[in-house]
Specification:
single chain, alpha/beta, Rossmann fold, Arc Repressor Mutant, subunit A, 10 helices, 6 strands, 14% strand, elongated
Length: 213
């Protein structure tokens, strides 16, 4: 007999957990070995058992899904994680990728997609909801754009997003105003942005205000 694939469900809605059980338990070799309602309960459960997969809601009380995923990756790197979300937000996908999760599933996907996701992970693959594929493509494209900016260009972009004038940027970075304008021109060309206002919007949307380059 093949080894059983043990799954823990982490979601604060009991009815949703029951729905997942109903879909997965009839599958051959699948066992639901635990349920928890928040991230702290999940970490306590993992001290006593070692599942193959955790189906993890992003929005949970006490310790949110992404924070729990970070701890699980650190403490139990062999355990696979599939994140569930109600929202198609790029930031959730970006953070999940950074935490090294193995799959993403939208809660409004049909049950057949959940089955497909679990079977994909069971076979050692990665899974991304078809509805999130376009978002992932956007993230990849954004990452490529970010990579083509030099360190100095990222510095200039951050200062532009903060509302600094050309002269102020020049003084901050100890470069000439001419060099600032040249960097701005190059940045706009690389990012295919047509106006300074759009450039600032891009910088804000991609968190250039939050982190230094």
């Amino acid at each position: 007999m093949a080894n059983h694939y043990n799954i823990v469900l982490a979601d604060d809605h009991a009815m949703f957990r029951q729905g997942i059980r109903t879909l997965l338990e009839p599958l051959e070799g699948i066992d639901i070995t635990g349920e928890v309602a928040d991230g702290l309960e999940l970490l306590e459960l993992l001290k006593k058992s070692s599942p193959d997969l955790i189906i993890l809601d992003i929005s949970m009380p006490h310790l949110r899904g992404l924070e729990a995923a970070r701890e699980i990756r650190r403490l139990y790197p062999h355990v696979k994680i599939m994140l569930l979300t109600m929202h198609k937000k790029k930031e959730f996908i970006r953070q999940g990728l950074e935490e090294g999760v193995d799959g993403f599933l939208l809660k409004d996907e049909p049950g057949s997609e959940l089955v497909r996701a679990v079977q994909t992970l069971q076979k050692g693959g990665k899974y991304l909801s078809p509805l999130l594929s376009r978002i992932l493509g956007d993230l990849v494209q954004e990452a490529r754009k970010a990579e083509i900016l030099s360190y100095r260009e990222r510095e200039v972009l951050k200062l532009l997003a903060e509302g600094k004038k050309t002269r102020e940027i020049a003084e901050t970075l100890y470069i000439s105003s001419f060099t600032v304008r040249r960097h701005r021109y190059n940045i706009m060309n690389k990012l295919n942005v047509q106006s300074l206002a759009d450039l600032v919007k891009y910088a804000i949307a991609h968190d250039y205000l939050l982190d230094t380059p």
